[in-house]
Amino acid sequence: MGTTNAYEFLSGATPPLGKIRAWLRDQLAGLGLTTVSDTELLTTELVTNAHEHADGAAELRVSVPAGRDVVRVEVDDHRPQLKPRRVAKEDPTSPHGRGLALIEAISAKWGVDTGAGVKTVWAEIPVP
User: Fold this and answer.
1) Strand 70-77 to strand 4-8: parallel, antiparallel, or no bridges (unpaired)?
2) Longest CA span, the chain
3) 8 A C-beta contact, residue 53 and residue 23
4) Residues 2-41: pLDDT tens digits?
5) Lower Cβ count inside 10 Å, N or C end of the chain?
6) Sheet of 109-115: strands edge to edge?
C-alpha cells in the first residue's frame, strides 16, 4: 500500500462499524485473511472506544508503511486530555471493558499521540 487512506466520521453519529469493516477489506485487499480480520477487530475496538469515551471518532486512517511488515491503524478524536487506560472489570460477564486488552493482544505495538485539540490512538498489526 505505502499510502494512507482515511475514513471520516459524521459528528455525533454512531460509527457504522459494518461499513468501516467493508471499507477496511477494500483498503487491505491482497493481504492475508488473518491480517485483515485482525485489523477489522482492532479497528472496531479503537473506533468504539473513541465513540464511547471521547465524544466520537473524528477520522480513521489505515496504511501499510513502505518497508515495514505492519498495518498501521490510527483513530483521531477531540479529547486529547483523556488517555486510554485499562480498568478493573467490576462485572466479568459484562461485554464492556475488554477493548484495550484486545488491542494489546492483537497489535505488535500501540500508543497515543496528542496535539492541539486532537488525540490519535494508533496500533500496528503484523503482516506475516
Assistant:
1) unpaired
2) 43
3) no
4) 667 888 887 778 899 999 999 999 999 999 999 999 999 9
5) C
6) 4-8, 57-63, 70-77, 118-126, 109-115
